[in-house]
# Entry
Amino acid sequence: MYDEVKDEDFIIIAVAEESRGAETAREFIEEAKPAYVSLIDTEHHVADLYNMVNVPQSVWINEAGQIVRPAETAGSHDGWRAMNREDMSVPDDAAALIAKAQQTYVGAVRDWAVNGSASKHVFNSQQARAHLSLPDASVATANANFRLGRYLHSVGNTKEAEVFLKTASDLRPESWNIFRQAMNLKELGPMGLAADEAFFERVDALGAGRYYPPPDIEGFPRELGFKPPA
Amino acid sequence: MVTVLTELGASNVAATNVQGDNLWLKAADVEAAIGWTLKPQGLCQGEVCIPLPRSNTENFVNGDTVNVAEWWRLMDRPVLHDNAGATWMLGAGANQRADVLNTLEAPDFTLPDLNGTMHSLSDYRGKRVFLTTWSSW
# Structure
């Protein structure tokens, strides 16, 4: 997509929320050979500033530095939850929803990249404010606990670090960023993913709730596409 | 020495007194540690000054020392520390974040790329920026 749009008008800034630092992100970034700005955020500062709770989430910012779409799911879909956890296969109907979600979102971003403020996906300021998610005091305290935990972990005080990281997650249960990063700092799971039993238990507990809340984009599939565990 | 974490980063500073949830620093060290300066009109950051409360002033300032933890709590921002009182986290407040988001002006940040080169969001003013996050986990 990036290649189709002129550099002077549009840029992608991809931020890795990666407390283990640049080396963990390096192989992923180099493999993707990105033609965009790729940054490393060990402290999840961007998630803190924009009140994000998961990856991938994105924000659209116009030429004047104004938010024209606040933090939202960047095209991912909950269809992955229909995955067979033994062989990782995804049923066709769920896979189709995942593909449609991705296509719809990328299409919207492309429309904005080409047409700028004339894109129908650009919110006016009233709409943008209505889509903002704002932090409350427990979110602010959760973020402080996360940062202190991450710092103590980085200087080798893992025992106390785990206490602060757990408090962070307890104070902000809707943040998958905090929960999964804390899990990842504790131990690298299979394939480096923070997706152990505790993760899947938490996902199942969502029921009909969303792991990836659908962005407010026309045509984006809003159905779950599978029957969630009761 | 204690380590003080704020949005400015981590700074090591000599504490004059650490007692429970209170962290006293020399007034001269306060700006480097937390980005606020003690002035006659109160504690100031840039143009913004917040006066010290008229009562209990001794909980905030004592001679040439400042209780930065109590000051942070007065601003309704989270204060945390490790068991030893050696590492302090002075976090951002919910209102501080919400007020910025409500203006719809995209909050600026500065982060390194893989080579360690720093980039700020504001470097890209004049372009449409699709800001997106990902992770390896």
